[in-house]
């Protein structure tokens, strides 16, 4: 344990005094008594005690517990993690079952394309009971734009509950349905309204504690992470630094508490040589922050979702639509069903169970 | 709560003094720094800095509310616009606590719509109003008090037959004329106090685009981002006011020509293609079409976008282009003595699950100026001819 004194997390003044008194490595300090250390280094006895406690802690306690895993252990862990379905089977397939837990997913898109709608759908879907293919968890929704309207959440929740009621087959599902009602869905959706980036930073600092107190939370949505950072920032380097810090914290939260973190981003206009294009906002370095990136865009009258960055899935583009029931597949015109019929056909949506179990075959 | 002083967060006073000397006075200053800088400035160890961050975060983080509580609080009132088809699609009307934008070419009826909404807001709740006063910020001098009275008396003839009611309604509408960006910002800054003192239930800004476009020439580099930043700031202030007081905020916007490469202009939108008129094509193959002004960032900032456009010489259309609740819908209307009137029946273009990017939606402008040589003599200055 030849660790340098300078690398410990002591207060700067204490560090300076220790080094100038000649204590350069941990070995020099370890065997002293607090009173001796305080006299030699000229620090108070309380500080000396804290220094000794820090130095004597074994390497396993110094926060290195998480970092060593074999790939086999990681594989087992990954298979145990579920995904949050989106109710659009094409998108679920492209994402490998849905939005993954333990990772951060970024959703970019032009205004009005459906980012908030997808977020509301995910917040409801995270609460679908396990026997229907969901996770039976709670959801945290951090709103920075004010686009969360509770009436819309009521519509989406009602449609999801009705869908599950239609496909109930056995007693286990019927029992689960007792606790899956619109009221319970709404009561397990935790909302935070952040008006600026300071409140967002503060809330992210407090999120680990909140998640420890509410261990059933499986989804954290931040809609949107771009809006508070796009104004009143003259110093762009400060913005980059804060965003990077935020991204790191969110990745840590995602993996430590096994939640799926979803961030929404906006688009900005970049002036090219002779045309302007829409690219995701917040700069190039932000592109590295999220593990997965989904871009929602318009092609003419239709909406498409493209998976642009993913460590395990390949790039794909799928169509989707927003209906009064929420985020859905584009229903191809079926001659037996009139176009005005909004009810979802049972069995059309693949109900993704955790990997390793037999899932229902999705529609061909 | 970003400006909360550190002294009030429960931090030790000596620590607050020490941070004060380094110009760290509010929660915003504290949270904008990284842990190493905080260790240096506060003279604390890493663990202690984490505890301090926790304390400061607790002081300025928002409180949690579940969706169920939000629904039961019923603080979300929808303000009916009295255009029945539009209200039905919007779940009741303009949502309070959000920004609604009305954009379109000149002369289409945006200011008329705003004046009509002002009248509606002053009506008692039994008649579908908000029973409150209105703050109207006018940057184009388009507000006409006579027209306001005309709309009121024609739309609700029985209610406004008494002169006192007209006077009462007119007294509840507070007009502010601002002609520069600085003045608009200052007015927005003081709006909170106005809302409280005058018990306002509706804020209208007509229009937010004119001052900004006058003062920011986007061809000069740097101006575009500065303009976007200013607009985002205004949007954030307005959103805060809308939510804090649970009132709807209505803004109007202008139009601009969007130049794109030939073939990428969305000309295949059936209900919006100009009859027989192609978009102007310039010499090097670029075609342009008209769309909402103020750019893409602004399209993100508003919650609802209503586009008004011309259909033919008499009729106009109102399109719900962006809404968190409503699908893409189109309604036909005309402007009359009593304000806007929707056409009912089969002429409605209807709603669909498709739509377009509300920032790129082409808007049809007036293609011909029909000088109204009709045989009905106009009885007021705003008659729009026969139909």
UniProtKB/TrEMBL annotation, chain A:
Any idea which UniProt keywords this protein has?
Answer: ATP-binding, DNA damage, DNA repair, Nucleotide-binding, Nucleus
Task: Tell me the ranges covered by the RecA family profile domain, including all copies.
Answer: 80-267
Entries under InterPro entries matching the protein? DNA_recomb/repair_RecA-like, HR_Repair_Mediator, P-loop_NTPase, Rad51_C, RecA_ATP-bd
Q: Where in the cell is it found?
A: Nucleus
Cross-referenced CDD domains, in alphabetical order? Rad51C
- Work out whether the entry's keyword set contains Coiled coil: no
What ranges does the record give for the region Disordered, renumbered to this chain? Answer: 326-364
Keyword Mitochondrion in annotation: no
Q: What Pfam families does this protein's entry cite?
A: Rad51
Segments crossing the lipid bilayer: none
Which PANTHER family does this chain map to? DNA REPAIR PROTEIN RAD51 HOMOLOG 3, DNA REPAIR PROTEIN RAD51 HOMOLOG 3 RAD51C
What protein name is recorded for this chain?
DNA repair protein RAD51 homolog 3
Q: Which organism is it from?
A: Huso huso
The beginning of the lineage is: Eukaryota, Metazoa, Chordata, Craniata, Vertebrata
Automatic annotation (TrEMBL), chain B:
What organism is recorded for this protein? Huso huso (Beluga)
Query: Where does the record place it?
Result: Nucleus
The entry assigns this protein to a family as follows:
Belongs to the RecA family. RAD51 subfamily.
Sorted alphabetically, which keywords does the UniProt record give? ATP-binding, DNA damage, DNA recombination, DNA repair, DNA-binding, Nucleotide-binding, Nucleus
Protein name, UniProt field: DNA repair protein RAD51-like protein 2-like
The record places domain RecA family profile at 75-255
- Disulfide bond found in the keyword field: no
Q: Which PANTHER family match?
A: DNA REPAIR PROTEIN RAD51 HOMOLOG 2
Any Pfam family the entry gives: Rad51
The uppermost taxa in this organism's lineage are: Eukaryota, Metazoa, Chordata, Craniata, Vertebrata
């Amino acid at each position: 344990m030849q660790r340098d004194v300078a690398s410990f997390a002591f207060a700067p003044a204490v560090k300076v005094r220790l080094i100038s008194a000649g204590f350069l490595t941990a070995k020099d300090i370890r065997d002293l008594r607090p009173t001796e250390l305080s006299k030699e280094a000229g620090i108070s006895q309380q500080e000396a005690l804290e220094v000794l406690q820090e130095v004597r802690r074994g390497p396993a306690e110094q926060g290195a517990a998480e970092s060593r895993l074999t790939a086999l252990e990681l594989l087992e862990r990954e298979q145990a993690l579920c995904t949050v379905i989106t109710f659009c089977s094409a998108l679920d397939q492209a994402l490998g079952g849905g939005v993954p837990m333990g990772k951060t997913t970024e959703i970019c898109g032009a205004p009005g394309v459906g980012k908030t709608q997808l977020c509301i759908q995910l917040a409801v879907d995270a609460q679908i009971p396990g026997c229907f293919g969901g996770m039976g968890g709670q959801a945290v929704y951090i709103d920075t734009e004010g686009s969360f309207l509770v009436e819309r959440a009521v519509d989406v929740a009602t449609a999801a509950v009705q869908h599950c009621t239609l496909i109930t087959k056995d007693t286990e599902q019927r029992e689960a349905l007792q606790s899956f009602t619109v009221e319970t869905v709404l009561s397990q959706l935790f909302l935070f309204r952040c008006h600026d980036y300071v409140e967002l930073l503060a809330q992210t600092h407090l999120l680990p504690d909140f998640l420890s107190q509410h261990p059933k939370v499986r989804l954290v949505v931040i809609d949107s992470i771009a809006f508070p950072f796009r104004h009143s920032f003259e110093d762009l380097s400060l913005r980059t630094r804060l965003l990077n810090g935020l991204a790191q914290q969110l990745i840590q939260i995602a993996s430590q508490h096994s939640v799926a973190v979803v961030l929404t981003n906006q688009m900005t206009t970049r002036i090219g040589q002779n045309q302007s294009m829409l690219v995701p906002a917040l700069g190039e370095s932000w592109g590295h922050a999220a593990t997965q990136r989904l871009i929602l865009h318009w092609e003419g009258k239709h909406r498409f979702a493209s998976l642009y960055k993913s460590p395990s899935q390949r790039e794909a583009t799928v169509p989707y639509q927003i209906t009064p029931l929420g985020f859905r597949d584009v229903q191809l015109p079926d001659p037996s069903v009139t176009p005005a019929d909004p009810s979802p056909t049972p069995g059309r949506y693949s109900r993704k169970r955790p990997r390793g179990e037999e899932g229902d075959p999705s529609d061909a | 709560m970003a400006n909360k002083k550190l002294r009030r967060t429960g931090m030790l006073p000596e620590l607050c003094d020490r941070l004060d000397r380094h110009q760290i006075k509010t929660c915003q200053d504290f949270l904008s720094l990284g842990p190493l800088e905080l260790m240096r400035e506060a003279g604390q160890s890493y663990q202690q800095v984490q505890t301090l961050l926790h304390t400061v975060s607790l002081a300025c983080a928002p409180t949690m509310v579940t969706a169920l509580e939000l629904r039961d609080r019923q603080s979300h009132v929808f303000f009916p616009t009295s255009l029945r088809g539009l209200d039905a699609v919007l779940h009741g009307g303009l949502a309070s606590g959000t920004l609604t934008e009305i954009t379109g070419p000149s002369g289409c009826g945006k200011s008329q719509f705003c004046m009509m909404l002002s009248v509606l807001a002053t009506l008692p709740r039994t008649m579908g109003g908000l029973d409150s006063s209105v703050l109207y910020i006018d940057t184009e001098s388009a507000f006409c008090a006579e027209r306001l009275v005309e709309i009121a008396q024609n739309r609700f003839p029985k209610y406004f037959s008494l002169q006192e009611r007209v006077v009462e309604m007119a007294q509840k509408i507070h007009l502010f004329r601002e002609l520069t960006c600085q003045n608009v910002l200052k007015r927005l800054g003081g709006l909170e106090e106005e809302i409280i003192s005058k018990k306002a239930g509706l804020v209208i800004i007509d229009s937010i685009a004119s001052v900004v476009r006058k003062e920011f020439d986007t061809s000069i580099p740097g101006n575009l981002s500065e303009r976007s930043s200013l607009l985002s700031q205004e949007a954030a202030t307005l959103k805060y006011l809308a939510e804090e007081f649970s009132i709807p905020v209505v803004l109007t916007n202008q139009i601009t020509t969007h130049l794109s490469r030939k073939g990428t202009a969305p000309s295949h939108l059936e209900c919006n293609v100009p009859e027989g008129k192609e978009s102007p094509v310039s010499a090097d193959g670029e075609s342009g079409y008209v769309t909402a002004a103020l750019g893409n960032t602004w399209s993100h900032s508003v919650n609802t976008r209503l586009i008004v456009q011309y259909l033919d010489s008499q009729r106009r259309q109102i399109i719900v282009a962006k809404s968190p609740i409503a699908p893409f819908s189109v309604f036909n209307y005309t402007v009359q003595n009593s304000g806007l009137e929707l056409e009912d029946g089969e002429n409605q273009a209807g709603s669909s699950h498709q739509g377009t990017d509300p920032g790129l939606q082409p808007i049809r402008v007036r293609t011909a100026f029909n000088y109204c040589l009709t045989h009905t003599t106009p009885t007021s200055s705003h008659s729009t001819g026969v139909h």
